[in-house]
Design goal:
Radius of gyration: 21 Å
Number of strands: 20
Number of helices: 9
Number of domains: 2
CATH architecture of the largest domain: 3-Layer(aba) Sandwich
Bound molecules: calcium ion
Strand content: 15-25%
Helix content: 10-25%
Largest sheet: 10 strands, mixed
CATH topology of the largest domain: Alkaline Phosphatase, subunit A
Strand order of the largest sheet: 10-9-8-7-11-3-12-13-4-14
C-alpha cells in the first residue's frame, strides 16, 4: 500500500467566505488511491493533436474520416464530451496543459508583440520558474520525453529540455511558420537536425520515436507527451496515407494520426504495460473550416464551443470503464493535477493553479461531478464567456476582440443552455435573469483573479523574456 492517500487539500483559496473562482490546489480524493495495490506508479501518454475538431473522429461523429484505432480506444475507455482547451489557438492552450493554469495566469495569452501566439525568435516563452507537469513527474522519478510541436518558446531557455523533459524531438512552433531565413527546423533536444524539415514523414518519425521511447522505458515509470504537428495547415502525410482519405489532405493527416495511435497502443500491449498506462488523446483547439467541429458553433480562433471544446478520449484498461462517456466539464487544465496525483506526487502544488484532479470522473465514480464551479473563455487578454454547469454566458463587450484583424465591435450578453442546445443557437438570457446574474458574478471573480484587458488580476504571474532572441538554425 505504497500510495495510500490520506490528506485532502481544500479545492479553493477561501477568503472572508468568498470562494475564489479559479484558484485550485490539487484536490485529492479517495479515488486517487486507485493504484494503491500497484507496486509501480502508472505510465502516462498524452497525445495532443493540433487543430483537430470536435467532429473529426469516427467516435465523435465523423462520417468521412476513418479513425478505427482511435474509435477502438474509445470503446476500450472513456469519451470526455465536455473537455476544453483554454484557448482557441496553440501557444496559450499548450501553456495550460504544461502548467495547469489559465494562459493569463502564466502570461502566455499573447506573445511579446501582443499577438495571439508565439512566433519564431520570439523574446517571450513559458517562464522556466513555472513547474510543468513534466517537472513534477521528473521529481517522482519518471522518464520524460516530448515528441512533436512545442510552441512555448523557441529560445534555448524555453525549450522542452529546460522545462522538465529529458529529451525532445520535434518542431519548436507551428508548421506554417518556416521563414526564408529561418526554415522550419526539426530539433533533437536543443539542436536543429534538419531544416527545412520534410513534413511528409513527420507523423511517421514522431511515431517511431514514440515507440522506441516506450520500448526503452517499459520498466517505467514514464511520461510521453506527443503533440502532433497535424492537422494544422499546411497538411502533409506519408506516401502510405497521402490521397487515401475521402476528406482530402486533412483526412489523410488525421488517418495517419489514427495509425500512429494504433502503433502506440500496440507497443504498450507488446511491452506488457497496457494495464499500467494511462493514455489521453485530445486536441489543442478546435478545427478551422478545413475540419469539422461537429454540432458546435464556430471554429478555431473563437470562444464559441467550436473553438475550445475538443474531442477527448481516455484509456486505462482495468481502471477507466470501457465504453464510458463523461459529459462533466473537464479540460487540459486538469491533466497536470490528475497525473501528478496518480504518480504519487505532492498533495499541494508549488504555485496556485486552475486545474483539478479529475480521477474520480475518469474512473467512473457514480457520484463524481466536475470540480469546476465555472470555466473561463478568454480571447487573448479579454474574458468573453464563462460556463457553469450547462449554462454558458457571453459577457457583454464594448469591443469584442479576435485573434487577427480589427475587433468586432460591441457584443451583447447572451446565455445558452448547452445541455439542450449544444450548438448555441437559442439565446435564453431573457428567460433566466437569476442565472445571468450568477454567471456575471462568477465572471467578476474570474476578472479579480486572472484579470481582463488592461486590468491585472491578483493571481497573475509573469512569463519570461530574453534580451535578444535568435532563430533556431542548422549549425554549419
Ligand atoms: Ca492549434
Amino acid at each position: 500500500m505504497i500510495q495510500v492517500i490520506v490528506n485532502r487539500i481544500r479545492l479553493s483559496l477561501c477568503c472572508f467566505g468568498v470562494i475564489a473562482l479559479c484558484l485550485a490546489y490539487f484536490s485529492l480524493s479517495a479515488s486517487a488511491s486507485i493504484n494503491a495495490d500497484d507496486a509501480s506508479p502508472p505510465n502516462f501518454i498524452v497525445i495532443f493533436c493540433d487543430d483537430l475538431g470536435y467532429g473529426d473522429l469516427g467516435c465523435f461523429g465523423s462520417e468521412k474520416i476513418r479513425t478505427p484505432r482511435i474509435d477502438r480506444m474509445a470503446e476500450e475507455g472513456m469519451r470526455l464530451t465536455s473537455f476544453y482547451s483554454t484557448c482557441s489557438v496553440c501557444s496559450p492552450s499548450r501553456s495550460s496543459l504544461m502548467t495547469g493554469c489559465y494562459p493569463r495566469r502564466v502570461n502566455l495569452h499573447c506573445n511579446s508583440g501582443g499577438l495571439c501566439v508565439l512566433f519564431p525568435a520570439d523574446r517571450k516563452g513559458l517562464n522556466p520558474e513555472e513547474t510543468t507537469v513534466a517537472e513534477y513527474l521528473q521529481r517522482e522519478g519518471y522518464a520524460t520525453q516530448c515528441i512533436g510541436k512545442w510552441h512555448l518558446g523557441d529560445q534555448p531557455e524555453f525549450l522542452p529540455t529546460e522545462q522538465g523533459f529529458d529529451a525532445y524531438f520535434g518542431i519548436p512552433y507551428s508548421n506554417d511558420m518556416g521563414r526564408g531565413n529561418i526554415p522550419l527546423p526539426l530539433m533533437s533536444d536543443d539542436r536543429v537536425i534538419e531544416a527545412p524539415v520534410d513534413q511528409t514523414t513527420l507523423t511517421k518519425r514522431y511515431t517511431e520515436e514514440a515507440v522506441r521511447f516506450i520500448e526503452e522505458q517499459k520498466d517505467g515509470p514514464f511520461f510521453l507527451y506527443l503533440p502532433h504537428t497535424f492537422p494544422h495547415v499546411p497538411l502533409f502525410a506519408s506516401p502510405e496515407f497521402a490521397g487515401r482519405s475521402e476528406h482530402g489532405k486533412y483526412g489523410d493527416a488525421v488517418e495517419e494520426i489514427d495509425w500512429s495511435t494504433g502503433e502506440i497502443l500496440d507497443a504498450l500491449e507488446r511491452c506488457g504495460i497496457d494495464e499500467n498506462t494511462f493514455v489521453l488523446f485530445t486536441s489543442d483547439n478546435g478545427a478551422t473550416r478545413g475540419g469539422s467541429n461537429g454540432p458546435l458553433r464556430g471554429n478555431k480562433g473563437q470562444t464559441y464551443e467550436g473553438g475550445m471544446r475538443v474531442p477527448c478520449i481516455a484509456r486505462w484498461p482495468g481502471r477507466i470503464p470501457e465504453g464510458s462517456v463523461c459529459d462533466e466539464i473537464t479540460g487540459t487544465l486538469d491533466i497536470l493535477p490528475t497525473l501528478v496525483r496518480w504518480a504519487g506526487g505532492p498533495g499541494s502544488n508549488d504555485r496556485p493553479i486552475d486545474g483539478y484532479d479529475i480521477a474520480p470522473l475518469l474512473v467512473g465514480e457514480s457520484d463524481a461531478e466536475t470540480p469546476h464551479k465555472s470555466f473561463c473563455f478568454y480571447q487573448m487578454d479579454q474574458l468573453q464567456a464563462l460556463r457553469s454547469g450547462p449554462w454558458k454566458l457571453y459577457v457583454p463587450l464594448d469591443d469584442k476582440k479576435r485573434n487577427w484583424g480589427a475587433p468586432l465591435g460591441p457584443a451583447p450578453l447572451e446565455l445558452y443552455n448547452l445541455d439542450a442546445d449544444i450548438g448555441e443557437t437559442n439565446d435564453v438570457a431573457a428567460e433566466n435573469p437569476e442565472i445571468v446574474e450568477r454567471l456575471l458574478s462568477l465572471a467578476e471573480e474570474a476578472r479579480a483573479e486572472l484579470g481582463d484587458m488592461e486590468n491585472e488580476g491578483r493571481g497573475q504571474r509573469s512569463a519570461a523574456w530574453v534580451e535578444e532572441a535568435t532563430g533556431r538554425l542548422l549549425e554549419e
